[in-house]
Amino acid sequence: MKTDGFADLEPPISPFRDKVALVTGAASGIGAATARAFAARGAAVALCDLDCSGGSEMARSIEEAGGTAEFIEMDVANEASVARAFGILTDRFGGLDYAFNNAGICGSPTLFLETEAALFQRIFEINVGGVWRCMKHEAVLMETGGGAIVNAASVSGLKGFDRFSSYSASKHAVVGLTRSVAIELAGRGIRVNAVCPGVIDTPMVAGAGDEVLQRALAKVPMRRMGTPREVAAAVLHLCHPDSGFTTGQVLVMDGGGMA
């Protein structure tokens, strides 16, 4: 049978169909876009967030569009809440194939010498501890059939940012955690990677203030913000079976800023 040299093109049936994906911080922004992207390709999606109203509405909109989704309340900073959420996920879907650990906070621009210990600890408890807690549960669920985990880091995890030292330090930690866990889980068929977005059009970025935003955009060669959908596409790329030999890597999408 003649193939015209295109035998390796993606088949018409999505490889995400009938799979299960989990997204934390799924009520808005990058998390919501990623949940929609997984659902649009046939995956059943567990949307996890502390924002019950926003998360439930997002799950409802996915269902109305013909997808399969369920909102599960989760506080990634609380082990009991995380364990409960994963118990619900297991009861509802039976297993897990993909996970995007996206929940995180940034905090207001604060000089290092004026940063309070409580803020520093809170940022780490959510941004790093949340990824750590979720990955432990995800790895257990993926042990029998393998899977792919993507963690939300940031370009702030690859270079320093003044007035965001706590956030930057937390994202550096996410990168290190991703690379280290990837080594340990590689033999179990579980891939672990991270995305490092730059300035993305999300509520978190808007909350940093116009001065911070303009200062950041001035360093972006493409002279625009990225979109949540563009980050979602990168997450699905790392989860796709065609990326099966990719683990322990960080994928930067920042309009050329790191270049």
In CATH terms, the superfamily is NAD(P)-binding Rossmann-like Domain
Task: Calculate Rg over CA atoms.
Answer: 18 Å
The percent range for strand residues is 15-25%
Count every helix, treating DSSP H or I runs of 4 or more residues as helices.
Answer: 9
Spans of 5+ residues with little confidence (pLDDT < 50)?
Answer: none
Morphology call: globular
State the CATH class.
Alpha Beta
- The count of β-strands is 7
Number of structural domains: 1
Secondary-structure element series: EHEHEHEHHEHEHHHE
Distance between the termini: 45 Å
CATH domain topology: Rossmann fold
User: Major sheet: order of its strands?
Assistant: 3-2-1-4-5-6-7
How much helicity do the residues have?
40-55%
Mean pLDDT equals 94
Described by strand count, sense and barrel closure, the largest sheet is: 7 strands, parallel
**CATH 2nd-level architecture:** 3-Layer(aba) Sandwich
